[in-house]
Amino acid sequence: MDGNNFNNDFNNQNQQAQQAQPSYSTQPIPPVYGQQPYNSGINYGMPPQPYQDPKNLEPVPIGTWLGIMFLSLIPCVNLIMLFVWAFSDGRESRKNWAKAQLIFMAIMIVLEIVVMLLFGAAIVSFYQNLLYMYM
After folding, report:
1. CA–CA separation, 75 and 135 (whole Å)
2. What is Dmax (Cα atoms) for the chain?
3. Rounded distance, CA 87 to CA 62, Å?
4. Are the C-beta atoms of residues 29 and 37 closer than 8 Å to each other?
5. CA 106, 112, 115: angle at the middle one, nearest 5?
6. Is 103 or 48 the better-scoring residue by pLDDT?
7. Average pLDDT over the chain, rounded to whole?
8. Are residues 101 and 82 in contact, defined by beta-carbon separation less than 8 angstroms?
9. pLDDT score of 128
10. Exposed, middle or buried by CB within 10 Å (0-12, 13-18, 19+), for 27?
């Protein structure tokens, strides 16, 4: 009898201890994309996002693109405006386009210099050979 009472007392104590402890879910709560879970100081590898004006994320209208293309046709004005559009605050699509245009212009200038050096050397060599032939 004493052993049976011991088991009953032990089971009662276990049940009381389990009821006293709060029950926690074993399922983790996934964080919302781009946000940290509450009560967490861990960054999870995502850098903090700076505030972006929603108006800057809207696409540029067609009329504005026509004006941009017209200004891009005017010599000297196009270079100045590309720098203004690329490095000032404004719509992201126009900034990215201006940066891409500046990169493209830089590549083309380097290619033009290389081609001029190659053809210039070829022309100088041709005239030197021509000069030696008739001397």
Report:
1. 47
2. 133
3. 22
4. yes
5. 145
6. 103
7. 78
8. yes
9. 86
10. exposed
